[in-house]
Every structure is written in C-alpha cells, then in structure tokens.
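Why run this: before we spend reagent on co-expression, it is cheaper to look at a predicted model of the complex and decide which construct boundaries make sense. The entries below are exactly what would go into the expression plan.
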Amino acid sequence: MPRRNAPFSIIRRLPIYLRILDNLIKKDVDIISSRTLSSRTGFTAEQIRKDLAYFGAFGTRGTGYNTVYLRDKLLKIIGLDKTNHTVVIGSGHLGTAFGRYILMKNPYIRVVGMFDVSNEVIGKKVEGLTIEHIDRLPAVVEEYKVKVAILTIPSAKAQPIVNQLVNSGVTAILNFAPTKLNVPEHVHVHNIDLTIELQSLFYYTVFEEEKDLI
Amino acid sequence: MPRRNAPFSIIRRLPIYLRILDNLIKKDVDIISSRTLSSRTGFTAEQIRKDLAYFGAFGTRGTGYNTVYLRDKLLKIIGLDKTNHTVVIGSGHLGTAFGRYILMKNPYIRVVGMFDVSNEVIGKKVEGLTIEHIDRLPAVVEEYKVKVAILTIPSAKAQPIVNQLVNSGVTAILNFAPTKLNVPEHVHVHNIDLTIELQSLFYYTVFEEEKDLI
DNA sequence: TAGATTGTTAATCGATTAACAATC
DNA sequence: TAGATTGTTAATCGATTAACAATC
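The model came back. Tokens follow.
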C-alpha cells in the first residue's frame, strides 16, 4: 500500500465510500461499480475511480469493485484497520453529545477518555464511560497511545490544552472551539465551526429571495 | 451591494472575518489591515483582500479597513443584517446541544423552534425554548418565515422531513444526518458528518508513524 | 511628499471532468 | 468474442498566490 501525502480532498471522501461499503456488505452485496457508487454518493463515477486509483488498482475491469476487498483496502489506507483510540476533552453538552455519538455509531473508533474541569460533570457516566478530571488527560493519552483528540472546550482555554496534547504525542485534533490553534507542522487540525456553517447558509436564503424578484 | 453567486470558498470565510471584527469592535479597535487579519485567521493577506474585493471596495488604501463599516458590509453580504430565524429538528443529545449552542453563542441568529417525535423530550425546555412535537413544524416555519433549518435526526427519517421543509419554504439546510438528501436545485444543503471528520483524521496519524521510521 | 496598504491583473497551482485505451 | 467497466492520460475549470499599479 503506497502511502503518500494524498490530497485532503480525496482523504475526506474515503470515509463516505467506507460507510457505503459497510452497508452493502451488510446486505451481502459482493460487487459494486463506480457508477452505482456515484448515484449513492453524488460524486461522479470518474472522480470515484480516480480517488481509488490514487492508492492502487483495486477493481476488476468489466466487473467493478469487490466490496469486502475494497473496504479492507480503504481501512488500511485511512488507518482504521486496527483499534483506534480517541479522547474527548470538554464534557459539556456538546462534548458529551459527541462522545456518546462516537461511542454508539463508530465501529472503527474507540473513545478511551472523556475529560472536564467542572465538578458538576466529573464522575458522570456517558454510555458506560466515566468523565474524568482533566489532570488525568496525559496519563490516559500515554496509556492508550492516543493520537487523535476531540476538543469541545471554550476557545480561551483551548491553546494550553493543545500544547499538552501535542507534548503527550497527539498528532491530530478535531477542534470545535471557534479559534485558530497553533500547532507544530506534524500535527493536523480539523476545525468544525458551527457558527460558520450556519451563518454561511444565510447567504443562500437572501440570494433566493432576490431571485424571486427577477 | 452587488450580490452574485459568489464561490462557496469565499462565502465560508466571511463568518470568520465577521467574528474577528466583532471582537475588535468590542475592544474599540477602529482600523484593521489585511496583514493583521491574516495573522488572526491564518489566511494570506492577498486572499483576504481578494475575498472582500469580490463584493466591493471596502478599505482605504494606505490605511486599512474600518472595522464597524466592514462588519456592516459583511452582515449585509451574508444576509445577517436582519433577524434571522432557524429551527432545530431532532432534539436528542446532539440536537439540544446545538440548539443550546446557537441560542447562547450566536448574536445574529435566533432559534424559533425545536422539534422531536419522542414524548420523552417534548415539553422540555432548552434555554427557555420548549421542545415541540414535530407536527407543529410547518406552522412554526410559516409563522416565522424560516428559511434555514438544522437537521439532527436519524438518516432513515431525514428525507420525508426535508420534503416537508422544502414545501414550507425552507431554502437552506444544515444536515447532521450522515446521508445524501435529495432537494430541488434552489435549496442548499451543508452536510456536517462527524464520522467523516473524525475518521479522516486517522489518515494523518498513520502517516506520522511511518515518517518516524524513515 | 513618502510610506503604507488596498484593489486588480497575471501567473501558478491543484482539483475535477472528459475521453479513451486497457482488459476482465 | 462482445459488452462492460476500470485505470490513466489530457483538457478544463476554479481557486490561490504573486506582483504591482493605484491611491490614501
């Protein structure tokens, strides 16, 4: 499996293929064509073939892709072929909702810790996992060799925690705090900013209203 | 204000500028340069100037941008210059967390309804707003002329609700259900897929491990 | 005026789409 | 073999970066 520094645009589509393959395999479908994948994803068949071809030749010409084989390849490419640990930092409403969601809906990822500073939530259980004091974070990260962390704490408190995470060996962060995090080059940050997502949608509502007037 | 069908890549950056301007104005800063905005956002100064120039000439050469004036322009461009209503459909853990977040943290957006089908949550209050039965959705959407809806319901139940929303006049949907929604061309859908965001991060952790071996 | 910073045009880069040869 | 579908090369499209003239 030649692992290169693949474009982010491709990487983001792989989990979508993975989810569809999971569903197909559950229904005992053995073979899928790029055309069918296209109708399920909304991406063009050409793009799907090109995405997969970036990592190797996984299909059979004239037939399509074997679902189990392709899923296996995708899991290896993404890096989900072994148990993967993550921690949730910040156990307010948003943090516990995410933690619960991942614990329940993500077959390939395991939450090994949830943390907070507030005595109001520390000790509470989320799907069987006990929320711990944030002082326990470095120990848990090191014990489980956690490489990916989810951040749902206020912007003002984010940077010191991020520094701590990086020092403990975390290399990827899913950041829900609406602030720019400073990290070394080898650490990847994905920002999910609910305000951006929601506000930017309003652009299209105004546009629609104006279109009505034309 | 010439409103065109601006590239989505630009539209998504506008709320970030808006947030920074809000903070600057709070601190009584009158003028900001593209260079300073660059260091705050991580985007290049050239890109920021080009983004803004797409909608008009809002700055002063040799000086920079007036914060209050630019914020005013941005609010008009995005379409946040009037009260903007939204509804949250699906009031499970994720839905109530989002609803609460928007109610508390979004100065320009007002949640006018939260809905669910489960008697366990209907009647509960979230930051003063009572969760209603989903049967009330069309009435609320029409009463408040809601154009933007937030969807946090299971994938299997999403499409019928989306059809209902579109019929009631909604033109933009923030979708957290991990499924492709079918909508008419004039309706915009933003998908936020926590699984994609999280799984795709694991690609970079494997990459890092391999780099260690080189 | 001189220094600073915008707004705009040109060059580059990267991603998507189209076309088709390879091959099951 | 004929039909189907992949994998790959070429063409197009769009977004970002660089350069600089305009102007406060």
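Residues 84-196 of chain A form a domain with the Rossmann fold fold (CATH 3.40.50.720). Residues 33-35, 45, 49-50, 52-53, 57-65 of chain A lie near DNA strand D (CB under 10 Å from a C1'). Bring this page to Monday's planning discussion.
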